[in-house]
Amino acid sequence: MADGPGRTSTLRRRGCWGWVDLGAGLALVALLVEWVHWAFSAPGGLRLTAGGVYVAIATAVLWAWPAARQGIGWANRITLLRAVFIALVAGLIAYPAFIQRHAEGIAALALLALLLDGIDGWVARHTHSATRFGARFDMELDAFFIVVLCAALVALDKVGSWVLVIGLARYAFVGAGLYWPWLHRELPVSYLRKTICVWQVATLLVCLLPLVTSSWAVALTALAAALLVLSFGRDLVWLWRRRRAPLRDSVF
Predict the structure, then answer these.
(1) Does the record bear DNA-binding in its keywords (predicted)?
(2) Among 55, 118, 145, 198, which residue's Cβ finds the most Cβ atoms within 10 Å?
């Protein structure tokens, strides 16, 4: 038999470990926040903002988790670690004065999250544990990370609010798919798309540094936005040409 008491018990144990992983992530957020308080006199509200962002991410993970509730796996644990760092950066956006005083530290934290972005995929491939859930988790976290970095630049008054277009472009694309289902077709793997995504994050991260002036930040983010238009335009052309073909699968 494929299913039975033993199988059910195993899945429950794996599901419990998933909850443990998410809880451990929340505990790590709390520890990092307390360390930032102790070392840099961070605003007291950081506990609420960073913790709230992480809880929102964890809730989304639980909502999208496969029905079998299997263990989260090492690759997804690394992605979850990225979520911890991103939640901390996101929580600090509410305090622009603090970010201005510690821009190098914020950029270093964001850089660590960016470096982990390559490690989770490597682990998934080399442990033969790649899943659609893991790919989706990684992709959604990348999109949110870009929004966070854009919002940080706006909070620092280095770039106008137009830069949020870079972060919100993908969400607009997903929303458009509600009206045009052919936009939900799974796209082929593209190294150009991945490169442009990394370029955007790296550009936004560099622009956080104090040595990058507002004028340079505007120029660099404008270039990142142009590359984003190129990437989306290329994908839209590919999708448009196949809009009448039956949808067999979707990433959404």
Answers:
(1) no
(2) 145
